[in-house]
Amino acid sequence: MAAARGGCWPWGSLLGLLGLVSAAAAAWDLTSLSCNFGAFCECDFRPDFQGLECDLAQHLAGQHLARALVVKALKAFVQDPAPTKPLVLSLHGWTGTGKSYVSSLLAHYLFQGGLRSPHVHHFSPVIHFPHPSHIERYKKDLKSWVQGNLTACGRSLFLFDEMDKLAPGLMEVLRPFLGPSWVVYGTNYRKAIFIFISNTGGEQINQVALEAWHSRRDREEIRLQELEPVISRAMLDNPHHGFWRSGIIEEHLLDVLVPFLPLQRHHVRHCVLNELAHLGLEPRDDVVQAVLDGTTFFPEDEQLFSSNGCKTVASRIAFFL
């Protein structure tokens, strides 16, 4: 596990433990301490919830719903010694709101090798499924890949990026892996985690956030119950989404729809300050203001939400240092 960021020490790391336990406790068998709860020592699966929560709290700007939903779902799933089905999360929101960042954090804090772990599998339409005319071959390859890797390690993480750019029908090969069956193709797969990421539903989420602002409601008052129906409808109505007319939706195999709200000016400021700290630099008001001045906000009248979220913050900072 990499060193913690921002002063957050993962409980699973040796240094963090030595800083928290007494000299007597340091003599314990640390390996068994980190492995005896929920059979965590499977493959390189080393969940560190304390580190994850700390990192999310410090670095994920403006996403109270996403932070709470992801942590709650993960804890319940990982701490269940015999889950009845894999954990399936679907992340939705405008570009630059933190979806990919959260998925990378999950890999980092769940697996010792992070995104480089042999048990973390990242799929991109542009890279892995670029030609819609080859969909039948992609189906065969994807099914074989998932089945083979779950056979090698049941504690696997599968990330599917840009779901709104996938050819409809491809994801249907995953249906047997996502449901509550005990064994599929001879493989025990119930401890796997699947994460699907898309911008679908982003416009609808933005509209809910805008209406809340017009009503003078705090964004922290926005609840999942307001967003789930509009996200579901957006997926069902989008013929370019990978779950369009999918049995995965019809059979309710998505455990949690995770909405990412649009980012306001103070959230972008938070991202700039985080990036400066990441670069080892002191906060600079001139850099922060320059990045904000170069950021486009919408709607035209209110100038409330960042068009690109925090997506271009890192690249923009370089111009002003």
Automatic annotation (TrEMBL):
Query: Which positions are annotated as binding ATP?
Result: G93, W94, T95, G96, T97, G98, K99, S100
Chain ranges of the AAA+ ATPase domain: 85-227
Location comes to:
Endoplasmic reticulum lumen
* The keyword ATP-binding belongs to this UniProt entry's keyword annotation: yes
Gene Ontology MF terms = ATP binding; ATP hydrolysis activity; identical protein binding
* UniProt signal peptide: 1-26
Q: Which UniProt keywords apply?
A: ATP-binding, Endoplasmic reticulum, Glycoprotein, Nucleotide-binding, Signal
Q: Which InterPro entries match?
A: AAA+_ATPase, ClpA/B, P-loop_NTPase, TOR1A_C, Torsin, Torsin_1/2
The superkingdom of the source organism is: Eukaryota
Would you name any one GO CC term?
A: nuclear envelope
Of which family is this protein a member?
Belongs to the ClpA/ClpB family. Torsin subfamily.
Write the protein's name: Torsin
User: What organism is the protein native to?
Assistant: Diceros bicornis minor (South-central black rhinoceros)
